[in-house]
């Protein structure tokens, strides 16, 4: 079964500094990878996804993520963090074999310090 | 588009009572999912529907939980009887893309507290 690991509970970063949120995955075949963001008392919002093609994927709000097959990773990045980026970030994966189950990681709390 | 609509946003009830959570997916979306979020277990998929038919309910914790989708625009998740360990945020999500490439669109959630 597919699974995702987000090794850090919380990521603290100063405003204006680069932000990285780490994600590694495990699937049987080719992965389909997603990042979501959750603001307090809100539902999850889709940020970006990797399906195929270019390993660098660009998404909403200036976020991007890099797919690395050899390291089975899909780290989320933003060149310059904003205070408003403070939220809970979830990585998720599906496998290729038609399974509509989306497996989520436990989430990373990002705190951007002014 | 109004997005996925869930009600109630907050529910406080006593142990043993019946709880019904409601969801209206985005119009035209063929897939509907129910997730549960807790601090201890994170996000768990409870059940999902395709064209109103339950496809995978292996995440439903026990017989106290049931879900229905009587038509394309409405689904319910029922807990009877409720227990304190059911306290969580329950999310409904929908999508219109066949697996496995489509992203999900989430509602704002229903926060359930069982006393």
How many extended strands of chain A?
Answer: 12
Please work out how many helical segments of chain B DSSP would assign: 0
> What kind of sheet is the major sheet of chain B?
7 strands, mixed
Mean of all residue-level pLDDT scores of chain B = 93
Order of helices and strands of chain A: EEEEEEEEEEEE
Q: What's the structural domain tally of chain A?
A: 1
- Runs of chain B in which pLDDT lies below 50 for 5 or more consecutive residues are none
Question: Which overall shape of chain A is indicated by the principal axes computed on the Cα atoms?
Answer: globular
Mean pLDDT of chain A: 92
Give me the CATH fold name of chain A: Immunoglobulin-like
Strand content of chain B: over 45%
Strand content of chain A: over 45%
Largest sheet of chain A: 6 strands, mixed
Helix content of chain A: under 10%
Biggest interface, chains and residues, is: A-B, 25 and 22 residues
- Taking the alpha carbons of the first and last residues of chain A, their distance comes to 40 Å
Q: Please state the oligomeric state of the protein chains shown.
A: heterodimer
If classified by CATH, what would the architecture of chain A be?
Sandwich
Radius of gyration of chain A from CA coordinates: 14 Å
H and E order of chain B: EEEEEEEEEEE
């Amino acid at each position: 079964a597919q699974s995702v690991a987000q090794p850090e509970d919380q990521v603290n970063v100063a405003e204006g500094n680069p932000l990285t949120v780490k994600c590694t995955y495990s699937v049987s075949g080719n992965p389909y990878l997603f990042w979501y963001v959750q603001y307090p008392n809100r539902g999850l919002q889709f940020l970006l996804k990797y399906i195929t093609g270019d390993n660098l994927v660009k998404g909403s709000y200036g976020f991007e993520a890099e797919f690395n097959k050899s390291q089975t990773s899909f780290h989320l990045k933003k060149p310059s963090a904003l205070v408003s980026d403070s939220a809970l970030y979830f990585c998720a994966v599906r496998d290729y074999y038609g399974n509509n189950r989306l497996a989520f990681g436990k989430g990373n709390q990002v705190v951007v310090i002014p | 588009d109004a997005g996925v609509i869930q009600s109630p946003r907050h529910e406080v009830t006593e142990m043993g009572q019946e709880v019904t959570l409601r969801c209206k997916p985005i119009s035209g979306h063929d897939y509907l999912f129910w997730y549960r979020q807790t601090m201890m277990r994170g996000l768990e998929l409870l059940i999902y529907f395709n064209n109103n038919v339950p496809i995978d309910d292996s995440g439903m914790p026990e017989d106290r939980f049931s879900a229905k989708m009587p038509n394309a625009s409405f689904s319910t998740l029922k807990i009877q009887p409720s227990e304190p360990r059911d306290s969580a945020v329950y999310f409904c999500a929908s999508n219109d893309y066949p697996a496995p490439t489509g992203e999900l669109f989430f509602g704002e959630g229903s926060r359930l507290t069982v006393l």
